Amino acid sequence: MSFRGSPKRVLVTGATGFLGRQLIDVFGSDDTLTPIAGSRAGTGSINNVETLAYGDLTELPDLTKTLSTVDCIVHCAGRAHVLHESDADPLAQFMASNHDVTLALAKHASKAGVRRFIFISSIGVNGSQTFGTAFRANDLPQPHAPYAISKHAAETALLALGQQTDLEIVIIRPPLILGPDPVGNLATLARLIGKGIPLPFGAARHNRRSLVTGRTMAHLIRTCMDHPAAAGQVFLVANTPALSLRGILTQLSHETNLPLKLMPVPVPILRIALRMMGRSAMDAQLFGDLEIDITHTTDTLGWTPEPYS
Question: Residue 179 in contact with residue 21, Cβ under 8 Å?
Answer without folding.
Answer: no
